[in-house]
Amino acid sequence: MSDIKINESKQVEDNAEEKEEEKDWAAAKAFFENLKTNKPRPPKPKNAVTIAVSSRTLFNMVAERLIYETEGVESYVAYQVEHENEPLKPGAAFPFVKALMTVNARLRALYPDGEELFDIVLMTNNHAQVGVRLINSINHYDLTIERFCMTGGKSPIGYLKAYMTNLYLSKDAEKVTEAIDEGIAAATMFMPDTENDLCDNQLRVAFDGDAVLFSDESEIIVKQSGLDSFFEHEKKFENKPLAQGPLKCFLEALGKLQRKFYAKNERLDCPIRTFLVTARSAASSGARVLKTLRSWGLEIDEALFLAGAPKGPLLQKIKPHIYFDDQMFHIEGAKELGTISAHVPYGIGQKYHKGKLIEQPKKE
């Protein structure tokens, strides 16, 4: 009987908290709508697909970073304050963020009161004084970024869950690894060596398969036992779904928004398109991948099996706003040909480069 009373009491408390949260959100919504701004208000975080980007992925801050590394934090902050009216140049994540905004505009046209939208958060360990230049730059490019997290030199990773983050993009590989360890989809972004013209009315996202959408269980077999063992294993377990990888939840979030367009009979004009670009061969190991996606209830718009061929030339044709891969030699090949790439530091592939084991430092 006491357990029932405790459960009932907890439910009452939860309901009260939820009502208070709705009341606060309604007040925030009313406040934002009364502001004299053309920018749309941000969606409710629990309904949104939240993309957290660091300042160095959103903007090109190579020169500023050099000042920080060579002269220290005080000179860096002073430089940023002195130049706060000069907009920063676009960085690797900039076209991706613009494409997210394009999708949001389409969703708002179809669902004027809808809350299922992308919400972009600036997640940075910059000091608050640097925030003025960041805000000025965001306003200069008319970006819809209302939520900031500036941690003054401390790692922002601890805030990702509080911001209900679905994807975290950074230039700092250690922070990205830390986020993945916390169960958050994350990747380290790289600027392409050359520029490609990207689609301005459709968000295009390309994923590698193993150790990105899926776990690295099959890749472990390739590395440790060779391709023949891998093909035998995939045939034997063709009907057993692969375990999920670090980016599966982001593909899931994209699928949720795609279905909003399908519900309005706009599948053929959907502003989100997803691609699987894998080194697997279709005949010998492709079925398990497709059956895994089916078992998850997820769709991929285009599945490209390359059977070990280079990915760069194909990605050059796709022109994604972002391409996720766990192996740096694929990232290097992609960015050489103009693809904006994001490295997912996950799985056994981190111990290898171009198929060869990287010599690990000896423990003393």
Can you put this structure into words, describing what you see?
The mean pLDDT is 89. This protein has a ten-stranded mixed β-sheet with strand order 5-4-1-6-7-12-11-8-9-10. A two-stranded antiparallel sheet has the order 2-3. It has a two-stranded antiparallel sheet with strand order 13-14. The protein is of the alpha/beta class and 364 residues long. It has helices spanning 2-34, 55-58, 62-71, 73-82, 94-110, 131-140, 173-181, 217-225, 227-236, 248-262, 282-296, 312-318, 328-336; strands at 49-53, 59-60, 89-90, 118-124, 147-150, 165-170, 186-190, 203-207, 272-278, 302-305, 322-325, 341-343, 352-353, 356-357. The longest helix has 33 residues, at 2-34. It starts with a helix and ends in a 7-residue tail after the last strand. The radius of gyration is 22 Å and the shape is globular. It is built from 13 helices and 14 strands.
Kindly list the characteristics that best describe this protein.
alpha/beta, ten-stranded mixed sheet
Give the strand line-up of the largest sheet. Answer: 5-4-1-6-7-12-11-8-9-10
Total number of beta strands: 14
Report low-confidence residues grouped into runs of 5 or more: none
Let me know the largest β-sheet. Answer: 10 strands, mixed
What share of residues are in beta strands?
A: 15-25%
